[in-house]
């Protein structure tokens, strides 16, 4: 059974949308999936109601797809109206039976277009299927390393399974990553605190032990895998970790642990999606 058989790609014809389509097409070629490329006319924007706007959008979509060279995996090109772009994308993805939604993290701005960055954020928050967000050029023709960022919540196993399936698709390595929030007592008056340092060392050891079970889960499913633990603010540290290990893709959950001891992973995921130079797949 294919990892994904149907992928909905949202586009506003921007440069980031080109990158997102290229990434989705490469993934579709790997998985045997078909692409449905969707452009939403957001009726909540006044100028989107011009009588000729739909014809103009249709011409742009034809040109956009012709330049992209994705006919081998393209199934449908769709233009629909919706109150907001994110509502339209989610509705169409549901109607099409999409198993993955792909979208750029930034897009056109102005009176006739919604800022795709905020649209992407709302799609990530509200989608019932994984969402692939793309910021920079990354066509996913090859992947050598997948960073699976987990917070040890109930969704961690789901993330590891998604990352492992993707890694096996490319014969890539899974790095199961976890970030420990820094101890407030790491330093006192600018001087290192042995109490804080010992606390973080103990936390790191405990985290590495727990991560071992997830690494085993990945290796049992056929992937090469190893753990990676760091200390810092989760979103920034995860992006730094991805750069340091030379990850080609990040997989993480949109919801996680909350409370005094943990940063809500929902906001962490949003910041990672917004700042990561490599594509991010968010799961629920």
Q: What is the CATH T-level topology of the largest domain?
A: Rossmann fold
Query: In whole angstroms, how far apart are the ends?
Result: 21 Å
- Count of DSSP H/I helices: 8
CATH architecture of the largest domain: 3-Layer(aba) Sandwich
Characterize the main sheet. Answer: 10 strands, mixed
CATH homologous superfamily annotation of the largest domain = HUPs
In terms of DSSP E residues, the strand content is 15-25%
| Secondary structure: number of strands | 12
**Main sheet: strand order:** 3-2-1-4-5-12-11-6-7-10
Structural class: alpha/beta
What level of helicity do the residues show? 40-55%
Segments where pLDDT lies below 50 for 5+ residues? Answer: 109-116, 257-265
Mean pLDDT: 85
Shape estimate: elongated
Q: Number of folding domains?
A: 2
CATH class of the largest domain: Alpha Beta
Order of helices and strands: EHEHEHEHEEHEEEHEHEHE
Radius of gyration: 20 Å
Can you tell me about this structure?
By secondary structure, the protein is an alpha/beta fold. The strands form two sheets. It has a ten-stranded mixed sheet with strand order 3-2-1-4-5-12-11-6-7-10, sandwiched between helices. It has two domains: 6-134, Rossmann fold; 145-283, Rossmann fold, CATH 3.40.50. Helices cover 42% and strands 23% of the residues. The chain starts with 5 loop residues before the first strand and ends with a strand.
């Amino acid at each position: 059974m294919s990892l994904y058989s149907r992928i909905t790609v949202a586009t506003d014809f921007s440069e980031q949308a080109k990158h997102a389509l290229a990434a989705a097409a490469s993934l579709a070629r790997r998985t045997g999936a078909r692409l449905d490329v969707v452009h939403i006319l957001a009726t909540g924007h006044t100028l989107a109601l011009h009588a000729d706007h739909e014809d103009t959008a249709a011409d742009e979509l034809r040109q956009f797809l012709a330049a992209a060279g994705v006919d081998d995996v393209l199934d449908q090109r769709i233009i629909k109206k919706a109150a907001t772009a994110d509502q339209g994308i989610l509705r169409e993805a549901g109607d099409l039976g999409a198993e993955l939604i792909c979208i750029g993290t930034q897009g056109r701005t102005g009176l006739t277009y919604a800022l795709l960055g905020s649209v992407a954020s709302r799609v990530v928050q509200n989608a019932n299927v994984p969402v692939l967000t793309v910021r920079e050029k990354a066509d996913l023709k090859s992947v050598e390393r997948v960073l699976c960022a987990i917070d040890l919540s109930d969704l961690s196993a789901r993330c590891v399974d998604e990352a492992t399936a993707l890694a096996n698709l490319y014969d890539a390595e899974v790095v199961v990553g976890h970030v420990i929030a820094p101890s407030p007592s790491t330093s006192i008056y600018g001087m290192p605190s042995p109490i804080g340092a010992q606390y973080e060392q103990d936390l790191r050891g405990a985290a590495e032990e727990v991560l071992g079970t997830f690494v085993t889960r990945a290796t049992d499913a056929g992937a090469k895998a190893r753990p990676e633990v760091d200390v810092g603010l989760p979103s920034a540290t995860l992006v730094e970790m991805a750069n340091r290990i030379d990850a080609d893709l990040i997989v993480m959950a949109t919801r996680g642990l909350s409370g005094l001891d943990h940063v809500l992973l929902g906001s962490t995921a949003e910041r990672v999606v917004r700042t990561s130079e490599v594509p991010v797949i968010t799961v629920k």
